């Protein structure tokens, strides 16, 4: 829990990770068994409560991966997904039964859109299938989760009827999926309130949220469901999943932790494993993390504007609501770019061993600020390099004792100053890097410590990178 008081059971929101099931359903992602087991082991270190390891009926590979996870990963509940068909439930049980904590998750749609067009059946039949599936799953396993798929577009009264049947048959968790990312926080909250009103027995089981991000509301909707009483959030690392993805695990974990002052809730996750888990999933899936992604994006704890840098260098909390180390980064970063200020430049120079004050600092700062402008006017038509690159060149020029020669494109740009980021030494990697000169703002930092920015920007498609572990 990294310095946080453990939440009491009623205030604890369980984290159900579906990176390996819904997350793997993202177009183009295909993980092999070894990669899945490694991710599952890392999820266990992260302290998730449940790992949805896969959908065993879908392929022999999926079955094998779920089975390996069930056999090799200790701590979290290991869950296998199944439609309401007997063959699915048998396969799910076959794959998870060796886990010390197995769970079968079975689902069927309750929206008329799905019942009529996809299942081509009737509401009565859906009720019968739900009943039989939960009963069969319970005959194998004490822990059974039921999901009325597309619930948020379904008639709430019909969904309530189906949920009541599932609870009667012994479901221990009832999940209310926003399958197509359609609901809004207010609507979802009311939906939960109505379900509780119609089915009081839902108070005896764990309610769960499963939100997709089609309208960018997956985290907000999940949070709304939690405020309405749900105590399990289904989510995926880096928010991967069908279409626009699922609720992002790192975002909901840090939202619950950072604002526990308003809701009094928390999870059991070890947030210091978030960055590492994000990098591992990004590498193995080939899905890069956008730079401005909350919590795990490489800019999530980076400051470039002079005002912000000045504030953070004086007192971190002026512009940070979380400490970078809480999510597993080494530190936050000060990025020297065209918006940077004198304070950050002086600090960077000091760290490099140059004590520059007063007039000398003013001059250095003036030159530092001139270079991006000069470069952008003289090279506007040809250069595509970012102004940050230009400013970084300015810093290098200044720190190599007054050499005014403009660094050439390519490898020689880093001459005279070891780049903080080893990746930035290859021309290809350098093109990818948006912040070539970043540094920690911590007073006690080591000289040019490897920047967290570097560490959080893997080259996800490189085969070498894919085989490397995040550990
Ligand atoms: O989005 C969804 O409804 C699902 C279910 C299987 C829970 O992924
Ligand atoms: Zn889903």
Would you mind describing this structure in some detail?
The protein has an 8-stranded parallel barrel, surrounded by 8 helices. The protein has a 3-stranded mixed beta sheet with strand order 9-10-11. The chain is elongated. Helix 12 (306-314) links the parallel strand 9 (302-303) and strand 10. The chain contains 18 helices and 11 strands. Residues 381-437 and 442-471 have low confidence and may be disordered. 50% of the residues are buried. The two termini are 19 Å apart. It folds into 2 domains: 9-285, Alpha-Beta Barrel (TIM Barrel); 301-379, no CATH class. It has helices at residues 33-46, 60-72, 86-96, 112-119, 123-140, 156-168, 185-198, 218-227, 249-258, 260-263, 274-285, 306-314, 342-351, 358-378, 387-399, 427-432, 452-455, 463-467, and strands spanning 14-17, 50-54, 77-82, 102-109, 144-149, 173-178, 206-211, 232-235, 302-303, 333-335, 438-439. The protein is α/β, with parallel strands linked by helices and 471 residues long. It is 41% helix and 11% strand.
């Amino acid at each position: 829990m990294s310095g946080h008081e453990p939440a009491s059971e009623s205030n604890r929101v369980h984290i159900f990770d579906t990176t390996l099931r819904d997350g793997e359903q993202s177009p183009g992602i295909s993980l092999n068994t070894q990669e899945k087991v490694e991710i599952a082991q890392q999820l266990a270190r992260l302290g998730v409560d449940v790992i949805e390891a896969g959908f065993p009926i879908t392929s022999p590979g999926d079955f094998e991966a779920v089975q390996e996870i069930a056999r090799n990963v200790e701590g979290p509940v290991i869950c296998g997904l199944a439609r309401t068909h007997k063959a699915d439930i048998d396969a799910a049980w076959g794959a998870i039964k060796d886990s010390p904590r197995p769970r079968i998750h079975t689902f069927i749609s309750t929206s008329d859109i799905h019942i009529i067009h996809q299942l081509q059946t009737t509401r009565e039949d859906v009720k019968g299938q739900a009943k039989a599936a939960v009963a069969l799953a319970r005959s194998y396993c004490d822990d059974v989760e039921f999901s009325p798929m597309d619930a948020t577009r379904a008639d709430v009264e019909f969904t309530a009827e189906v949920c009541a049947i599932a609870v009667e048959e012994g479901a221990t968790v009832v999940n209310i999926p926003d399958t197509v990312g359609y609901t809004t926080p207010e609507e979802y909250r009311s939906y939960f309130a109505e379900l509780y009103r119609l089915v009081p027995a839902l108070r005896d089981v764990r309610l769960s949220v499963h939100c997709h991000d089609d309208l960018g509301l997956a985290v907000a909707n999940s949070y709304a469901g939690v405020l309405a009483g749900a105590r399990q959030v289904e989510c995926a690392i880096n928010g991967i999943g069908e279409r626009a993805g699922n609720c992002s695990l790192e975002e909901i974990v840090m939202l619950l932790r950072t604002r526990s002052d308003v809701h009094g809730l928390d999870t059991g996750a070890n947030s210091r494993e978030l960055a590492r888990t994000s990098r591992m999933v990004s590498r193995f899936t080939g899905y890069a993390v956008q730079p401005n992604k909350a919590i795990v994006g490489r800019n999530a704890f980076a400051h470039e504007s002079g005002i912000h840098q000045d504030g953070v260098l004086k007192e971190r909390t002026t512009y940070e609501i979380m400490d970078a180390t809480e999510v597993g980064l080494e530190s936050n970063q000060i990025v020297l770019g065209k918006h940077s200020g004198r304070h950050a430049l002086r600090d960077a120079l000091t760290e490099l061993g140059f004590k520059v004050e007063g007039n000398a600092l003013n001059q250095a700062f003036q030159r530092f600020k001139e270079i991006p402008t000069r470069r952008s006017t003289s090279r506007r038509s040809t250069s595509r390099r970012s102004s940050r690159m230009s400013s970084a060149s300015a810093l290098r020029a200044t720190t190599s004792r007054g050499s005014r020669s403009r660094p050439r494109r390519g490898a020689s740009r880093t001459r005279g100053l070891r780049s903080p980021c080893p990746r930035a030494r290859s021309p290809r990697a350098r093109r990818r890097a948006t912040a070539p000169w970043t540094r920690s703002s911590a007073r006690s930092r080591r000289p040019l410590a490897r920047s967290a920015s570097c560490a959080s920007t893997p080259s996800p498609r490189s085969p070498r990178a894919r085989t490397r572990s995040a550990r």
